[in-house]
Structure formats: C-alpha cells, structure tokens
Amino acid sequence: MSVKVTVLGSGSAYGVPVIGGDWGNCDPKNPKNRRMSPSILIENNGAKVMVDFGPDVKEQTLKFGIREIDGVLFTHPHADHITGCFHLPMYMRYFSKTKNLPLFADRATRKDIERVWWFQNDPKINVEYSGEGRPYWREILPHEMLNICGMEVMPILQHHGKMDSMGYRVGNFAYSTDWNSMPEESYEYLHDLDVWLVECDSETPTTMHQHLDQVLEIIERVKPKKAYLCHLDLTMDYDTISKKLPENVELSYDGLVIETT
Ligand SMILES: [Zn+2]
Ligand SMILES: [Zn+2]
C-alpha cells in the first residue's frame, strides 16, 4: 500500500529565517531555505495523519489545505512540536459532529500538553471544552503497532538528550526527528526502508540532535534506499550542503512530497 508524505515544515525549532529575519548561512533567494517548524502529513490506506502540531501549524494547514484528519501523532513535548495545540479547539470544529480528534502521544508528552493547555484539557476547570470535540487521547508505547483508521504505524523509541522521543514507521517509510541516539532494538524497525526522513539539525555537532557527519554515518548503517534530511537550522544552506551529500541523500524542504509503494 503506497505511503504519501508531505513535508509541512523542514525547519529546526525556530525555523528559517528566525524571528527578526536572520538567515544564518542560508541564501534567502532560494525558496527551499524558507523553513517552517517541524511537521509532516502522512497519507496511507485512506487515512490521513499529521505528525506534531508546532508553532506554524495554522499556516501549514492553510498552505497545504489540510482540514479533516484522522489523528495527530506527537514525537515529544518540545515547544517546536506542540505549541500549535493552542489551535486545537478551533481546529476540532471540523471533527465535532462526527468524531473527536484522536491525539497519539506517550504519557510524558500528554502530561506536558495538558499542563500547558489546562484550559482545554481539564473538564473540571472549563466545561466549555468537554463532550464532543474534545481531544481524544490514545497512549503510545514504544514498538507497539498502532492502527489509525487503517494506517498501521510503528512507534520507534529514540533518545533526545535526557528525554525520550518517538520516531514513526509506516510501510517502508520512516520519520526520525529529534534524537541523538536510540536503543539497538530500535534499529531493527528501520530495516529495508525505501525512504528515511531523518533529522540533521545542523552542520556542526550539537548535543541533543544529529549533525551532518554523524547522520551520514548512521544512514550508511541503516541503508535506506533514499534518505531526506529534515529539522534543518540556519547552518544548512540548501545548495551548499546538497553538494556535500552522497547520491542517495537529499535535503528536504517545505512542500516536498514523498511517495513510496
Ligand atoms: Zn524539534
Ligand atoms: Zn526536540
């Protein structure tokens, strides 16, 4: 069954350019360097799922015409992946008559989202958001397959500094953002990939993310047919970095559509 992925945001936490207009090493004249916050849309088997709900989610859903979806998968509770939850009550108008919008997250991520947006999540505090149209939480456990309206999704455990984060595999596509290491067992879920969308936060080493030399070594180990790099910061100019990449690796950009069979 084919998997279609749209990159809604290829940027690192603060996007490119950052607020105020700093582009770093990135050439402002290349539209592929304009990057929104990290998020993708996955379509498979009739189901449509977004991964993460960051600060640019409103612009992303408008730009890519996304309205009804079958769920949101969260990778972890860093701000660049959850800040758009502010828009959830407004977004859930599209779901309230038929169903609630399922939100898939591990316990720590759910806890952080509920803590920040307490006014959307605690029916005792604000009854306005209770009943239909409320977030419908579904707990994710590492390496336990999810079925979201017919889309089978495998959550893959990753380490991201002192916290854990979740990668996701659908068919022969996998998305691995925000990690600096993963347990050996997790690599078993990344075999035989047609496409691996994997983070490379910057060209130079960072503590909680992948950087260029490191991720290229890991790509050699995982051996996907094709790899795209995402979660790109100001050091990752599209043309300059593209020249340093092997043949099967490319930078992603906002609006990139990836299809696997
Ligand atoms: Zn991030
Ligand atoms: Zn993060």
Q: Summarize the main sheet.
A: 7 strands, mixed
How far is the first residue's CA from the last residue's CA? 6 Å
Strand content: 25-35%
Please tally the helical runs, counting DSSP H or I stretches of 4 or more residues. 8
How would you characterize this protein structure?
- The protein is an alpha/beta fold.
- The chain has one domain (3-260): Ribonuclease Z/Hydroxyacylglutathione hydrolase-like (Metallo-beta-lactamase, Chain A).
- It has eight helices and 14 strands.
- The protein has a seven-stranded mixed sheet.
- The radius of gyration is 18 Å and the shape is globular.
- 44% of the residues are buried.
- The model is unreliable at 126-131 (pLDDT under 50).
- Bound molecules: zinc ion (2 copies).
- One zinc ion binds next to loops.
- The site of one zinc ion has 7 residues, from helix 2.
Could you give a quick summary of the protein structure above?
The protein has 261 residues and is α/β, with parallel strands linked by helices.
Strand-helix topology:
Elements: E1 3-9, E2 39-44, E3 47-51, H1 57-63, E4 71-73, H2 79-82, H3 88-91, E5 102-105, H4 107-116, H5 118-121, E6 136-139, E7 146-148, E8 151-160, E9 163-170, E10 173-176, H6 184-187, E11 195-199, H7 212-222, E12 226-230, H8 238-242, E13 249-251, E14 257-260
Parallel strand pairs: 3-4, 4-5, 5-6, 10-11, 11-12, 12-13
Antiparallel strand pairs: 1-2, 1-14, 2-3, 7-8, 8-9, 9-10
The structure holds zinc ion (2 copies).
One zinc ion binds at residues 76, 78, 160, 178.
